[in-house]
Predict the 3D structure of the following.
Amino acid sequence: MSLYGVMRTGGSGMNAQSNKLATVADNIANVNTTGYKRASTEFSSLILRSGTGNYNSGSVETQVRYAISDPGTLNYTTSATDLAIQGNGFFIVSDSGGTPYLTRAGSFVPDGQGNLYNTAGYYLMGYNIKNGAAPDVVANGLGNLEVVNIAQQTLLGNPTTTAKLDGANLDSNAAITAGPPAYTSKTSLITYDNIGNPVKLDMYMFKTAANTWDVEIYNNADAAAGGGFPYGGPALSTQTFTFDVSATGKGRLDAASPTSMAFTIPGGSPFTLDMSNMTQVAADFQFKATTNGNAPSALDRVEVSSDGTMYSIFDDGTRLATYKIPLATVPSPDNLSPEVGNVYSISINSGNIQVDFAGNSGLGTIKPEALEASNVDLANELTAMIESQRSYTANSKVFQTGADLLDVLVNLKR
Amino acid sequence: MSLTVALSSARSSLMASGVQSSVISRNVAGLHQDGYSRKNALIVSQPGSGVYVSGIQRAASAGLFNNVVKAVSTSAQQDALYNGLQKIAAVTIDDPELDQSAAAQLAKLKSALQQYASAPNNVTFAQTAVTAAKGVATALNDATNTVQMTRADADAEMATSVNNINQLLAQFETVNTAIIKGTISGSDVTDYLDTRDNILSKLSQEVGITFATRANNDMVVYTDSGVTLFERTARSVTFDPTHSYTAGTTGNAVVIDGVPVTGANAIMPISSGKLAGLATLRDDKMVTYQNQLDEIARGVIEVFVEKDQTGAGGPDQTGLFTYAGGPGMPTTGAINVGLAGTIKVTDLVDQALGGNPSLVRDGGMNGASYVYNAGGEAGFFARIQGLVDGMAASRTYDPAALGKPSGSLVDFAGSSVSWLESQRKSVGDEATYSQTLLERSADALSNVNGVNMDDEMSFMLQVERTFSASSKLISTIDDMLKQLLMAVG
């Protein structure tokens, strides 16, 4: 029986080597495929139980392995929506039917509706955070995800709600003023109302007594021709600030003094001007403030930060977070089952999906304007190919020898 | 995987070398470009995949740039002031041969009168005295015209300067928006930053500025007095030019963001930049000089006054010198604005107009009661001597004119000349000093951000070596793969 066994063993060896050759063929074919993960073959022996006096040859079993957790090198590109993952994790994508998959192939481009899809046609999924709310993450599932769309919000304005002083000083040596139309210093700030009209606020500082200043804010639209007093309307807000000139205060606002001004911008939203940084020292007047809000302007482009937040950048330079792109992983990434188009689906062996954001819980970071190259090494594959060719030849020799011996056996009887 | 990684690393090195050489060529091209700052490609190594260019950096120093901007403003202010004073001085006092100054003409008049006093019957001497008097009046008229023309020129230059500021601020807005957008999206904004700095330097020439950078490279610009020039949008800078000036004209103020910043009523006055220099010239220096001229004119008219000789107590009347408001006397003891522009020698002594020069000796230009030489004597010299003494006598002048508070007419005219000279001298010194300061600050900045040709060339050689080494690597790896393929075949 063992001669037949030898031929079967030789056949199984040839079968195993052709499997190996098949993985090599696939690897070489995909040597330049973005996000492709190398397949390889591992063999395990199937030896038959034998007695001490005889040996029955068994066969070899092929196991296909995927080097899914092995990162490829990064190639840099110029498209802001080309994304690569540095470290662990996968993008969550879905096919047109809505079935979710995992992938490392991040060459995303917008389709006709502005939905981002990759080379294989899978749509990128993310959490919508346009309303400013925190993303609603389901840690072990894919709930609340939607297809990332970059075509929306062509016109969008944000009303100004807060302003903060970067640095402001009132000249302590200024003379005391009588009040409007005389004033000590003036500055102005651009804010935006609810529909994005710029509203210029004129701010006047009056030194009314030593270390005491009145600040009045007027709407510039009410100003007299040529600017300034008299204004057509009352002040939007008036506040008296006092300064502590003791050795401890050193010209900062007095503890009892108000530290902010709050009012509603004409046609706009409630606005708070945080003045807590204001000082009164012997230096020139300065008033540097930063306000939020922006005028409506067209979407210029999008960008993705390394934590996966996608921003829309508008023509006037403001940016708005629109989506949060999560990363997913499984306990055993190498056991994911590969599907057509560099995507992977969850298998029994891979374990359950875990969703979080880039940089959290062991996940990698997202690198924009880069693509992950295939992790196939050509030299490796070519040597594997030669190896496999030689092994195949050797196996065929075993088969042939078995067949020859059988032939001899058959020819014993004439 | 190692051969492919080697290949990809070598390729990334080639790409980085490409960017580096493009940066070098930008630097070389910008060598003589005003406001260009040296660029530098930041190469970052990426574990397992070679290198990549993470960004382009600009050699810049905010502190030194700030110094340059300040020096530019001060220098522009001093230059504007100096040029104006120079213009006045050239026409009024600079050429001693021409005796254009009122002081020289007064001295001439004095000596002509002295000569006349020695021979009161000599009609030629009388004629010479009248001509000298005309010289004084013309000198004062011409000086007034020049002063007022200089003020009008300064006003016109202020209008140009305001136009420039508005244009620069509009450009600033465009560039600033591009910078914010570029900074947010991480693209190369270094050239825009150069442009913005350039605009700031130009702006600082017109008006003194301070500036601050906010998040995302957004910049806010204020005048040196703290008035907002740019914050998200450009503020309006307005100025209503006045085309013709007389001594009494007050020029309009430049208004930035609704705040007047020049002139006497400025609430937050600017202190440097061309605009500040022109405003000082127009509203301060030239007004003071005009006041001095007016005081000289008042003095001259008062010296040659004719008093009632009959004892009837008739009012004092203008004599040899009269003015638009004559024959009544100008207000005494105070500046009569514009007097120097209208002062003239009375027609009654002008032979060409049928006048009689001997009236200088006799008086009586305002009728019979004002005749000094009642006897009609040909040798009457008391009146002429009186006039000569009057010119030498000490008088008081309005201190607002900033000349000598008291002294003879010739002394006061001399003090006016020396006031102008000292102004010109001190402003000239300041201008030279601020020019030097500017050059030094610009040098210091250029040492930091300038392009050094030798440096660039040696760096280029380095890049070239890296490039050849990387390409050599690629061809070697290619050979190795070729050998492998041959082994397969």
User: Anything to note?
Assistant: Chain A touches chain B through 53 residues (CB under 8 Å). DSSP finds two helices and 31 strands in chain A. The two ends of chain A are 21 Å apart (CA to CA). The first strand of chain A starts at residue 39 and ends at 46.
